[in-house]
Amino acid sequence: MLIPSIFGRYRDYSPQTNVNEGDKEYTMEITLPGLNKGDIDVKLDKGRLVISANNESEQRRVSYNQSFTLTDDIDQSGISAKYENGILTIHLPKTKETIDNTRKIEVS
Fold this sequence. Notes:
Elements: E1 17-21, E2 25-31, E3 40-45, E4 48-56, E5 61-69, E6 80-84, E7 87-93, H1 96-100
Antiparallel strand pairs: 1-2, 2-7, 3-4, 4-5, 6-7
């Protein structure tokens, strides 16, 4: 007789996270397949971006929590997030001061 293991339902969830830097913003992409938008929570707490996702069904339980310390060049009031096709995309705009201070330095 086979007895289903509760450990088969519960597993650590380590989604792939990519961070890209552009001229005006950082973009963070986190793979969270099989979730609904309501399962995901993104918060800003004392300079830290806190991301959590929780979903439980008869077949599986997904729980993910991660926090990222934000650098001073990020405009925290302009952060936005979108969940589409299993990917959470977070836009982290740079401060105007950071954008204006960017210049090319010639190499001699």
